[in-house]
Amino acid sequence: VCGSTGPGEEVMLLEAYRAILRQDQPVLVLVPRKPERFEEVARFIVDAGFACVRRSARADGTRVATDSGGSVVLGDTMGELRKFYSLADVVFVGRSLVPLGGSDPMEVAALGKPIVAGPHMENFESPMSLLRGADAIRVVDTADDLPSVIGELLADSSARARLGAAAREVVLRNQGATQRTADRLVCLIGETGRVRHGR
């Protein structure tokens, strides 16, 4: 599943998928970040020579028979990205192959899924630092690196499980940050009030 993808990425992801198909037979799911791009991405899929299976065509959730060697699922609905992530064997975090700042990897990490991202994750430096420090994410320099990195993960269920478990552990270790911040703010406000009143 390639989630929250941005302009310039889908064509690269489709080419990477074509290369992966030479080694394996996974189903690719593309979920663009912005709904106004659904039609454009559907065209990219068809232009790349794949059948476009639209999620919106099966709103009741019935399965679509996909020929994994010739179909790409387009996540063209709103509010279902987490569902797609939960079904994935490997998740690519979008808006990271192109300089768009990336997308939040922690939603994927919380699901215990193996994560792959591109080099442009500037908007998520802190989560990326935590994930990298725990060896809980794979980062590619270019789209050309995707087939080998994702192909290796698809071929090794143990590696997927380890990477996903490490990512989930990062989330569990860092839960409660909002409460800790609120507690600290209450302390600071209390200290300011005491100083102001000469206590």
How much beta, percentage-wise?
A: 5-15%
* Through-space gap between termini: 58 Å
Low-pLDDT segments? none
Which structural class do the helices and strands define? alpha/beta
Instruction: Indicate the radius of gyration in whole angstroms.
Output: 20 Å
Major beta-sheet overview:
7 strands, parallel
What coarse outline follows from CA principal-axis ratios?
globular
Percent in helix: 40-55%
Spatial strand arrangement across the major sheet: 3-4-2-1-5-6-7
- Number of helical regions: 8
Textual characterization of the structure:
The chain has 199 residues and is α/β, with parallel strands linked by helices. Helices cover 45% and strands 13% of the residues. It has eight helices and seven strands. The chain has helices spanning 10-20, 38-47, 81-87, 106-110, 125-133, 146-155, 157-173, 177-196, and strands at residues 2-5, 28-32, 51-54, 71-74, 91-93, 115-117, 138-139. A seven-stranded parallel beta sheet has the order 3-4-2-1-5-6-7, sandwiched between helices. Strand 1, helix 1 (10-20) and strand 2 (28-32) form a beta-alpha-beta unit. Helix 1 (10-20) packs across helix 6 (146-155). The chain is globular, with a radius of gyration of 20 Å. It starts with a strand and ends with a helix.
